Structure formats: C-alpha cells, structure tokens
Amino acid sequence: MNTAAASHRLVALCAASDVEPDTPVRALLGNVAYAVFSLNGQFYVTQDQCTHGPGSLADGFVMDTEIECPFHQGRFDIRTGQPTAAPCTEALRIWTAHVVDGQICIDPAEGRCVGNGSVPA
Ligand code: FES
Prior knowledge:
The protein is mainly β. Helices cover 4% and strands 37% of the residues. It has one helix at 3-7; strands at residues 11-15, 25-29, 32-39, 42-47, 61-63, 66-68, 75-77, 83-85, 94-95, 98-100, 103-106. The chain starts with a helix and ends in a 15-residue tail after the last strand. Bound molecules: FE2/S2 (inorganic) cluster.
C-alpha cells in the first residue's frame, strides 16, 4: 500500500492547536465519539466513552500518561488504552493520530485494542 492510498482513508477530527496537554478534545465522526489527547508532544486518539459506563473521557482528568474517567474515577493509559485503575477492566479502542495540515486525522477503520485489557495487580 502506498502512502497516497493510505492517506485517502484519513478523516480529520479537530485542529491540533485545539488540543492542550491537560484538556482532551471530544470529536464526533458520524455517531462515534473520540477523545483526542496531547501528551509530551505526541497526539493520541481513543474512544471517548469509558468501557465501564457512560463517562466521557474527554471530560476526564489527565494524570501524567493516564486519563481518569469523571464517572467512577477508573483510569486508562492514554497511549495504549489499557485500563490502569478499577473499576475499569476493559481496554479502550485506540487509533493512530496523524497530523495533516494542522488537523488531527485518523483512519476510523483502524481502531484497535492492545493487550488483554486486564488491570495490572
Ligand atoms: S463510567 Fe468510567 S469508570 Fe465508570
């Protein structure tokens, strides 16, 4: 697959300049909500809805490399989507963030889960 073909699948979520390190951005594509994070100069995209319930992770609290859900204070690693604190046990879907012309873009079909989703002991 060449780069030009791959780039045709990319869809913009928001402007990179809108994403502050402590302030994730919620972006909608169709009826799917995504949370966009800026961490140490890198951008990350996860599903916005917590896997434990209705919490919007874009409304949560960034704590170093983790996002804390505003509903029950479960946490996930922003980089991998892995749950890091109870009551969350199921990993988030994540997407590779591409910066194109100042926009954060993803391939919506690429969403994936990493690892087994278990909370480390
Ligand atoms: S809804 Fe997120 S921790 Fe419960």
